[in-house]
Amino acid sequence: MFYHFRLTAVAAFALLGGCATLSASPYQQLELHTILDHREVAGVGCLLSNDMGRWYVVAPGRVTITRSAQPLHITCKKEGKGSAAEVVQPRADTASLMGNVVISAGLGYFVDRHSGAGYAYPQVLTVLMQPAAPDAAEAGERAVEARIF
User: What contacts 24+ positions apart, CB below 8 Å, involve 90-95?
Assistant: First the structure.
């Protein structure tokens, strides 16, 4: 009986040996930068989210997120400067993918896809911001100034 249990345990570990869920961290540290008019803007509040959670960071800065097979949505804003919204697609970790195919006959791939552990986002993210629209009072003043000869 004990022999049968040991054999089952060894078989399970062999099948999941290439599985990133067991061998890799479910977390990833990202570095975020925001650019406006070809210059980095400091003090920009950014919200990052995927199906595993939401995280807030002030750019430029670092944040630790939970990996996922789903896209990472990024929204950033700084009053008076501008805002941005971008989506970053995850990349499959080829080493764990090959391990899954060779060792577990692809079973670990499905586990990693569900948990997101076999995927990663680029470590450095650069978000391009759009300038803030001028408010109505400023726009009216500029229009009057433009008409003066």
Answer: 90/116, 90/119, 90/120, 90/121, 91/119, 91/120, 91/121, 91/122, 92/118, 92/119, 93/20, 93/24, 93/118, 93/119, 93/120
Determine the angle formed by the axes of helices 107-115 and 94-104, rounding to 10 degrees. 140
pLDDT band (50, 70, 90) for residue 103: low
> How many helices (H) does the chain have, and how many strands (E)?
5, 11
> DSSP alpha helices (H): ranges in 105-135?
107-115
CB count in 10 Å sphere of residue 76: 25
Give tens-digit pLDDT for 75-100.
999 999 999 999 999 998 765 555 55
**Residue 12: phi, psi to the nearest 5?**
-65, -45
Q: Rounded CA gap, 13 and 107, in Å?
A: 12
Structure tokens at 91: 């990349």
* Two structure tokens written together for 5: 């249990």
